[in-house]
Amino acid sequence: DRVPRMHWARLGRNRTTVSAEAMSQWQQIARQCLDAAPDWVILSAEHMLEVTDPAQVLDHIRSLLPGLRQIVVFCHVRAPDLHFVSTLQQRLRASDVIVPPDPEAPVIAPALQRWTRQAGCSLVVREYLRDRDAHWDSLDDLLAHGGVGPVPGLVRTAATNASLSAESMYVLHRFRQHGFADQNDVFRPASNRLHQMLLTSGQALGG
After folding, report:
1. Which of 110, 142, 160, 174 is the most buried (most CB within 10 A)?
2. Interatomic CA distance for residues 128 and 116, integer angstroms
3. How far apart (Å, rounded) are the C-alpha atoms in residues 107 and 49?
4. What are phi and psi of 113, to 5 degrees?
């Protein structure tokens, strides 16, 4: 029900506007599948576990892609402490407000169970290991354990899901505090540039 913050700058927070844009993109995916007739269609999203009615989502996908023979919901999950750090890094790009960990936050199991109860849908849950293994790759893990298998001729791009160091997070936090204290939950080009600069410098220095 909530419009993800990453879309606010381009689409605003109006659900009608966002829903219209989403439907347009779904139709584009359907047209591409009709033209290409692929063996697999991989849809990637960060908010799938927030879906409260998986059956509605699956029915929508089946209506747009009537030739589907199988649906696999493949989920990468992080340990709670690593997930908090990752979420905090994302938040600091658009806000100086640090939300502490919530000990009463719902566990992930009920969200996963909502998907396991769906007919014609299988669920695969794997641990996200990039925090512990720099050579681990989420796409490789999906291909190996999601039932897809090797993809000949697959064009790979360099991994971009890098993390900031604690020192860089502090710098970004102070920058938001002093530069955009009145613009929380708004992505600013200057913040994005600083974020990228901190990532680049951290990788060059090895930390």
Report:
1. 142
2. 20
3. 11
4. -65, -30
